[in-house]
Design a protein that fits this description.
heterodimer; A: alpha/beta; four-stranded antiparallel β-sheet; 11 helices; B: 237 residues; mainly alpha; Methane Monooxygenase Hydroxylase, Chain G, domain 1; Phosphate transport system ATP-binding protein (chain A); transport (chain A)
């Protein structure tokens, strides 16, 4: 009989996990808002076709870290980033990098669904059009259809593509935003609390979607819901006071975390 | 010490489980001790008391399970909390089984009452019960103290009980061979010995559960076993 010891199993899992290529690598990442330091030398890798969840109490730096991945912090006055972040080995903070191009490769979905005040069709078609991803109207139609299908929204909206995107329900709007992010064929999708404004059913649909999207995209999600992190991710990173406290397999993280601070946070205890 | 929960009633819910498990442990211990005393002294009244007490453990187990399920649904426990609740469910099941085994021993008191149990055989049973009870008592102490080293010790000590059980098994066989009239009482005693041996196993289970609750991993290595009764006939042939 082939009985593996726990240590051997863990080693095998570790090997399997290490075999997954790294999509993005954050090295000694620090972020300052003016004089205030928000992140302290964070070293965190994002693995390809993996859902990585970032958790931690409010103000811990998880959203700040997420925003460094596609340089969303650039738009904030006085924000300074040190250390390095690479996407497939290329430094995303390199001066030669085109930020618009970067954000097409690393898309983002926000906490509150924010469709453009345009038709459903235009919401999805906008990105591919400005990035020149469709050669003809027929091409564009196809991209819109596929994106809406990937976002699990096609059947609900296919007969009213010319209606306003803001007229959809909250959950549909959020999936429309996901379709919009998917439309430009990004490699990485960042999600900043994508379900916090949604009801449980819409949340479940988005979670199901995240599960499906993983096959084609790398996903990083910030969430306040521990249960959501446990449900949707394979890797979880815990932030506290601007530090990365622990990064681990999600299964391990929520049953037997290594760090006491993670333990206290996920169990809802006073730290 | 781990800090308390932000939602203080959550702490109360967990404490409820711990308290009920301890109570179950106390009752189970009492029942096992009484059942063996009833057997050795052919004390029918005491046996009847043990039989009637079994319902206490059945009820307690049900209540612990209900509370545990409601707590999981309400609090969605994580990490050590989740292990604590799952552990409580498992330990409650083990203790409920211990109660059943005590009750079964008590029931057999009635069957063996007419026959006289040889003194040294009774002493063997008493010794077996002492060891099993000690395991049970210590494992309940460990449940309160969460002393991992102690939990491991208990787990490693189960082979003593197995060894005594094996020797009792052999001894009972010789009595049966000596005089066929011994077969009925000796068979009952054999079941009693088996019951007591099983109680030791449940104590070991509980020790493993506590180890998992405290550390999040299973104790390493096979638990030692010295129960050779499955091959007793084969050896003598």
């Amino acid at each position: 009989m082939n009985i593996m010891t726990e240590a051997a199993t863990e080693e095998l899992l570790e090997k399997k996990m290490n075999a997954v290529p790294l999509k993005m690598v954050g090295k000694d990442v620090s972020v300052y808002y003016g004089d205030k330091r928000a992140l302290y030398d964070v070293n965190l890798n994002v693995r390809e076709n993996t859902v990585t969840a970032l958790i931690g109490p409010s103000g811990c730096g998880k959203s700040t870290f997420l925003r460094t991945l596609n340089r969303m912090n650039d738009t904030i006055d006085g924000c300074r980033v040190t250390g390095s972040i690479t996407l497939d080995g290329d430094d995303v903070y390199d001066p030669s990098i085109d930020v618009v191009e970067l954000r097409a490769r690393v898309g983002m979905v926000f906490q509150k669904p924010n469709p453009f005040p345009k038709t459903i069709y235009e919401n999805v078609a906008y990105g591919p059009r400005i990035h020149g991803l469709a050669k003809s109207k027929a091409d564009l139609d196809l991209v819109v259809e596929h994106s809406l299908q990937k976002a699990g929204l096609w059947n609900e909206v296919k007969d009213r593509l010319q209606e306003g995107g803001t007229g959809l329900s909250g959950g549909q709007q959020q999936r429309l935003c996901i379709a919009r992010a998917v439309a430009v064929s990004p490699e990485v999708i960042l999600m900043d609390e994508p379900c916090s404004a949604l009801d449980p059913i819409a949340t479940a649909k988005v979670e199901e979607l995240i599960h499906e999207l993983r096959a084609n995209f790398t996903i990083v999600i910030v969430t306040h819901s521990m249960q959501q992190a446990a449900r949707v991710s394979q890797r979880t990173a815990m932030f506290h006071l601007g530090n990365l406290v622990e990064e681990n397999d999600t299964d391990k993280m929520f049953t037997n975390p290594d760090d006491q601070r993670t333990q206290d946070y996920i169990m809802g205890r006073f730290g | 010490m781990t800090p308390t929960h932000i939602v203080s009633i959550y702490d109360e819910e967990l404490k409820y489980l711990t308290r009920r498990i301890s109570e179950m442990g106390g009752t189970a211990e009492q029942m096992v001790g009484d059942s063996v005393r009833a057997l050795v002294n052919t004390d029918m009244a005491l046996a009847q008391k043990v039989i009637s007490e079994d319902v206490i453990l059945d009820t307690a187990e049900r209540q612990i399970n209900e509370k545990a399920i409601v707590t999981i649904a309400k609090r969605q426990p994580m990490a050590a909390d989740l292990r604590e609740i799952m552990g409580a469910i498992r330990i409650a099941a083990d203790l409920e089984r211990v109660g059943d085994l005590g009750k079964n021993t008590a029931k057999r008191v009635i069957a063996v009452q007419g026959s006289s149990i040889p003194r040294n055989l009774a002493r063997g049973l008493e010794h077996l019960a002492e060891l099993a009870l000690m395991q049970l008592k210590e494992v309940l102490d460990v449940y309160a103290s969460r002393n991992i080293e102690k939990a491991k010790e208990i787990r490693e000590r189960d082979d003593e009980i197995d060894a005594i059980y094996t020797s009792l098994f052999r001894e009972l066989l010789t009595y049966m061979m000596e005089d066929p009239r011994n077969i009925t009482p000796c068979t009952h005693l054999l079941f009693c010995a088996k019951n007591i041996e099983r109680i030791g196993d449940h104590a070991t289970n509980i020790a493993e559960t506590i180890f998992y609750m405290a550390t999040g991993s299973q104790p390493e290595g096979e638990r030692p076993k010295d129960d050779h009764t499955t091959s007793v006939g084969a050896i003598e042939e």
